[in-house]
Amino acid sequence: MKKILLILLLSGFVNHTNAQETKDKKEINKETDSASNLVFNPDQNVVTEHSTTIKGQKIAYKATTGTMPVWDEEGKAIAGLFYTYYERSNVKDRASRPLVISFNGGPGSASVWMQIAYTGPSLINIDDEGYPLQPYSIKENPYSILDVADIVFVNPVNTAYSRATSKDIPKAKFFGTNADIKYLADWISGFVTRTNRWASPKYLIGESYGTTRVSGLALELQNSEWMYLNGVILVSPTDLGITRGVATEAALKLPYFAATAWFHNKLSSDLQSKDLTAMLPEVEEFTMNELLPSLSKGSSLEEQKRKEIAAKIARYSGISEKVILQNNLDLPLNSFWKELLRDEGFTVGRLDSRYKGIDKKDAGDRPDFNAELTSWLHSFTPAINLYLRNNLNYKTDFKYNMFGPVNPWDRSNDATGENLRQAMAQNPYLNVMVQSGYYDGACDYFNAKYNMWQMDPSGKLKDRMSWKGYRSGHMMYLRKNDLETANEDIREFIKNSLPKEGQSAKY
After folding, report:
1. Is the pTM of this model over 0.90?
2. What are the tens digits of pLDDT across the range 364-383?
3. In CATH, which superfamily holds the domain spanning 49-241+396-497?
């Protein structure tokens, strides 16, 4: 037995439960030519039993961790996707229990972020605002949605422990907006079949580029796999392929600037004295009714009007009127992150502008590094490696890719916003919820609202679309208050999007 376990570890395999020991021996003998080489197994898992307390209630659950193949047209395994599947135990009616399928973004990012900091049953050790703490560890998540839904966290090819089965397989099979959607839809269908979840209400949740992914998947699952969803949750959404003009792209940044400046006390006293959500409507109204038309005029804008607009941008952004004019009323994001706290010797973060960074010199037009991402990697990377090995008993010598190599990524023909609209139009059961952090400068909250307006210009779907804002950044759940609120919003969304008994899918 000791010899078998030694070969198992050296080979990169991970099954250590008694129930799978016989299978493991066969796999080792079949696939290991040399104990010194890592051999990737695209189809294996380990099962562990756990319990946690959610909203004061003791919850027992099973975690299945491992890989499941991506098959090509001839039934050959061309990749294995690493996943963790959490199922609440002692559920009598699994058919009526919702299943949430979770993706992160990047597009080369693992699903670690939401797994151990948002909806999953375990949490990383951070302070109440999301900053790292030592020792690195995992604790219970009292706000997890596992009380109301089972969850599978999926990692696309080259993220986490997911890999192609051979270097000879064309990267174009995986690395592109539409290729990504196509193979993941097929994988989801296979996973639902294996786990016998076809009867369950199904939800997709994606964060950042994951919102591009799940928006496209909503239609692809309907059209290619004949799988119909009850809900799609977009956490910090991208532009979803919805085209912005030059003026629109420039204008829509301002409400985010205002939120960040408010957080850092850089606005005038009359604005600063208002609560954030009481102040922002004024900025949003100016953005759509004055700034956007003015930027559209370009050089034809009258000089006096240009100065008036510059003064208002300065008022709402915390950046001097001089700098605004030097940038032709369109301050680049990099410049904002460098300029806002320049006099204090700090930069602000991109994905969460509450975070501060220190550059080598105060001069320049962009920060040296992303202060928030550095902070997050500080706390997440040790935690996920410890959690998978120690808590979920998944042991391997493969590297866990927080961000894996997925370039070049083909971003052409991105119609994911339109795909999501079409999926909603075809499926009366399908609902959409958007979650945004006010201090997110990469996928800002006002652009998320703009997506909804443009995705549904007729307004016929607006009763099935909702938007929620939180006082944090890209990963709003890192702030404890928002973690609780955002998970509760998901619970309510699931509850409200489940059809009543006998309610048919029709208009």
Report:
1. yes
2. 999 999 999 899 999 999 99
3. Alpha/Beta hydrolase fold, catalytic domain (3.40.50.1820)
